Each structure stands twice: as C-alpha cells, then as structure tokens.
Amino acid sequence: QGFEVDDSSLTQAISTLRKMLKDSTKSPEFVKTVPKRGYQLISTVERLSPLSSDSISELDEQEEENEAPVVDLDQFAESAVETPVDKTTEAEVTVEKPKTSPSQKNANWLFRILVVVAVLLPVCVLMLTNPAESQFRQIGEYHNVPVMTPVNHPQLNDWMPSIEQCIKRYVEHHAGESSPVEVIATGGQP
C-alpha cells in the first residue's frame, strides 16, 4: 500500500525468486513471463494445516536460519500493471559490502604476489641474460660487399654463384642508395 515499484526492481525481484526456486525462464514451473503484462504464478499453492505449538517453535527456528525475502507475486503483478510508474522517482538502495574473512584477504594477497612474480620473472630473465654472439667467417666479397657465414655452418661453395647474382642485382636496382654492409648466408639446398 503506497509503494510504487519500478520495472527494474520488479525484474530483479522476479530474477531473485527464480534463482531461489531454480526456475528456468525457458520452461518455467513457478513464474511465467507474460509479454507486455508482467508475471504470472503458474504453480499450484496449497495451504498447510495448523501445526502444534512444539512444531511451530521448531519451524520458527529453522526459518530464522534459512531466512529469505518473500515476494507476493499477485500483488507485484497487479501493482505493476495497474500503477503507472514514475520514471523520475528513484528509490534509495543501501548496499552492504560483504565482509571478507582474513583467509580471503590472504588469498587475495597471495594471488597478487603470484601475478607480479609471473610477470617479472620473464622480464628479469630477458634483461639479465646475454645471448651468445655468433662468430662468422668471410667466404667471399662481391661489389665491395663481404659475404659471411657462421663458423659452425657447412661450406656454401655451390651457393656462391647465386649469392653473387643476388648481390649484383641488388646493387644494380638500388644504384642511388647505399649498398649492403654485409651479407650473411646460411646453409641450404642448391
């Protein structure tokens, strides 16, 4: 009485109810969405018979432990359909942050430390290690361009005419530009 419910809070309440009831939106058992109208309770409801005073006190204790918000779907559906919603009115909502236990805080710090170590370790390895420099030997010189090959590679005598031809064509096509400083040739199949 006197409450105005906007669409988003009704949708959120129905969503929460469906989660608690484990009700699917595709094939609902309890709450059905009626397009452009609202929601409809489609399950059967039975009234329980009055219980003895002993069993009532036991149920009260169980309800306190398993307390959950109760939503009257008929009232929600009627008020949503009949009451025009004022879009400019906003309800104030207070959100309580869940308290984190010390073990969760420790787990968060441990996770953060592991991420930092995982990022820094490869960077340190790259910065602190020097790759071994390859040593080369000169196997020829064409158009004042030395041709080098790594010391541990096999002879490239079969490739020498092809290498000379490549250097000659490069120099001819790039006449106005500077020529290569050196050419490094590695093994391959002729």
Automatic annotation (TrEMBL):
What GO terms in the biological process aspect are recorded for it?
phosphorelay signal transduction system; regulation of DNA-templated transcription
Q: Residues annotated as DNA-binding region?
A: 1-43
**Key words, A-Z:** DNA-binding, Membrane, Transmembrane, Transmembrane helix
Domain named OmpR/PhoB-type: which ranges?
Answer: 1-43
Regions crossing the membrane: 109-128
GO molecular function list: DNA binding
PROSITE patterns listed in its UniProt record: OMPR_PHOB (PS51755)
Protein's UniProt keywords contain Transport:
no
Q: InterPro entries of this UniProt entry?
A: OmpR/PhoB-type_DNA-bd, Sig_transdc_resp-reg_C-effctor, WH-like_DNA-bd_sf
The organism's superkingdom is given as Bacteria
Instruction: Tell whether DNA-binding is among the UniProt keywords.
Output: yes
Q: What is this protein called?
A: Transmembrane regulatory protein
The record lists the lineage as:
Bacteria, Pseudomonadati, Pseudomonadota, Gammaproteobacteria, Vibrionales
Q: Which gene encodes it?
A: toxR
